[in-house]
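Good morning,

Both structures are done.
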Amino acid sequence: MARLESNFKSDLLAYLRRHHGDMCRHWFDDIEPLDIEGGVVRLLVDEPVQLRYLQRCCVQPFTEAAQQVSGRLLALRFVGPEDEFTAALEPAPVAEGDDLPGLGEQMLLSPDYSFENFVVGPGNRLAHAAATAVAEQPGRAYNPFFIHGGVGLGKTHLLQAVTQAILSRNRHAEICYISCGTFTDAFHESVKAGRMSAFRHRFRNVDMLVIDDIHFLSKREQSQEEFFHTFNDLYQAGRQVVLSSDAAPQDIPDLEERLTSRFNCGLVARIDKPCYETRVSILKTKARLLGADIPDDVPAYIAARIDSNIRELEGALTKVRGVAHAMDVPITLDLAKAALAADPGAVRTAGQPNLQLIVDAVTSFYDVKLTDLLSKRRHKSIALPRQICMWLARRHTRFSLEEIGGYFGGRDHTTVMHAIRAIEARRKTDDRFSDEVERIEHDLTDVGG
């Protein structure tokens, strides 16, 4: 058994950050190299969810890094604190029902999707509080627990956070976490194979059943029948059921009334789009997870541009990081603007400046920070430039009052109406101010044209 060089870990992580930056996470620092035996490097990972994630997703890049920094043709294996090396090489025994046709592997838990990394805001506060309660008292707090909302708003994050929290307290808990599509596929394949007994044993004898995208039960009568009985068995036994959907139970088309009733008998929590402040926090949290050093004005800029969902926010951050990495330069606001300039959100109609051009013109003229402009601050030095932005946005874009208010820090339409009236009134009585606004507008339309 050979010992590793003292600098092996630091060199390994440095190589990964240089060549596989998008994969790297801050918790990689907790991985401990053990030794080399038979040409295989063993890396110790204490946390079970992290261990399985690395085993499923990261063996190839870690192996590449180990070979490069050691100069040897090594293999690599991630092991837990209780693993014996020989046992790790052997396949795990197959539990009853795990080899069902159509079942495949359960959905992989991502260490990113923990409660610690979930950003709470007005649109998800109830769902987060309920998920925390379920994790602390599975089967007793809220059962079933049903989360619904649009694509990319954090439903899967909460499902995984509940699962991980329970596993962290009881690593032997029997939890089945799958997609609805996997459930229906396994059901139909089990019917064909005559293995319904194994199918029912697999799904009705767990401590918790977690199913993502349960709305895919829509129009599947046989699958709905089977899930109804699965649900009843688990519920009557006090086992926790956690479900997610794009729609509320009563809004899922062609879902049997008895299932709608069952889903509504627990807690149904809706997740809405994140507000501006929440979007900024989400980007900062993601950057911390990635170990990325970004100034505060970058997440403020991205959050102001993108208000659709979390996936698009993270995609924009990934693009900015990718450009910075390719150019080998630090992330700055100017770089972020350049990286996202070709995105659909930046496209404008010829002759019409977009919101970002308006913000750039005003912040430059009054020498204020973008973060302040989009914040809740009401100081006069910030409030006036913000009102000018709203006034210009109303004159030069097709956005509604609600959309403009949402862009500028999540304000409502009445705030925008007040801003427009205030600017119009001051222009009539303050010639110097009127000249300033006209100068900004002239420069803006010159750029926009």
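Second structure follows.
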Amino acid sequence: MLKINMKKIKFIFLALVFTFNFSTLSNSQSVPSSFADLAERLMPSVVNISTTQTVVTRSNPFPNFQFPPGSPFEDMLKEFGTPQERQSSALGSGFIINEKGIIVTNNHVIEGAEDIVVQVNGDKEFKAKVIGADPLSDIAVLQLDTKEKFIPVKFGDSDKARIGDWVIAIGNPFGFGGTVTSGIISARNRSIGLSRYEDYIQTDASINSGNSGGPLFDMNGDVIGINTAILGRSGNVGIGFSIPSNSAKIVIDQLIEFGETKRGWLGVRIQDVTKEIADVEKLDEPRGALVASVAENSPSEKGGVKAGDIILEFNGERIQEMKELPIIVARTEVGKKVDVKIWRNKREITKKITLGRLETSEDFKVKAKVEEKPSSIESTIESLKITVRKLNNEDVKLRKIPNQTNGLIITKIENDSPLINSIEVNSIIIEAQKKRISSADDLNKIVKQVLNTNQKTILLVIFNNQNQRRYIGIKLK
């Protein structure tokens, strides 16, 4: 048998342990003993912002007489009241990105403001004007009205920020300017329903009312986020959200150069690819963005994209979740020709599309809400446990959907219907299993065919209550 020297084994073991520990420590951030030096260096670049605006209200001329809530005469009565003006003020934070006094903050901090006063380094105050503002990303850029020089901060690479990294926030919470809080990055790529383009960094660094617009710094002192929102209205609960610096910088540069944003526009309305839809389309997994409709004369229509396509990749970037596509498209240069990989008819194809500009498109305008519909003869679809009626010309005109549209309006959905959690009353079914629906018999026939298969999943195309074309995959019982 081979004899091995025990001292040699012990030496090798200790060497391996030392190498492992050194490697682990070198790839992780050490716990800082203090944030004092970093905070002292950064404080002069973080500002407090106060705004004022005039709010006009009207008092009730007949205080002892009230119409019932919701009465059409209620608003009319208010119009005869005496106009009263009052000054409303708000507080926020911001940070200096240029020695000439260019400041970044949130749009909601300065929106509607008549006067903006910025306090720098806790004492000096300056008037500021808006260079540009973008409600969609909630970012605004200000210029201080002075010829003084300031200490700017620089942006870091937010894509390199990792969950668990140390961060500090500096801002003006509740008017207490120059407040420093610390924490870690709790999560990435968060969506909370505040804006169209959401890819927030979540942090447990204390963020409260008044912190909005302030910077989130990494341990190098670089800005990796703009503090924008908190969870709940009662103040900090350890969950705050910041706009990543990489996304923000694109908007900021455009606001400084043009005074407005210039976002790429594809011209599609999209939705999530559910497991049911992926099964019907024979896609390997639920991924990508399903094209619910294509805007007329849009870049997508000109490039050959069709409703029902699933966008898997845009300009070389894979689309795993639907929410990723608008963010990627928006940051792509207007006029650029891009490759878009699409899943259509159970195979992958590529389309070349020249991007338009979102801000000049019809997609940028607010669509009208759905009003009451005229009634008609109703039919019951027993297998789906819904009641429907045929779409008529008045419906098409009222809903402002494409002419020549045929379909069924859902007037009732039973509580035990397989559609109960997916579709609302007043939605219009226009296709089932990619076949057009003109009558209740059409729908009944297709549902029976699906029930006779092993899959038992039906793919419906509808117009929802906002008159948006949507694809819905339903597992039948």
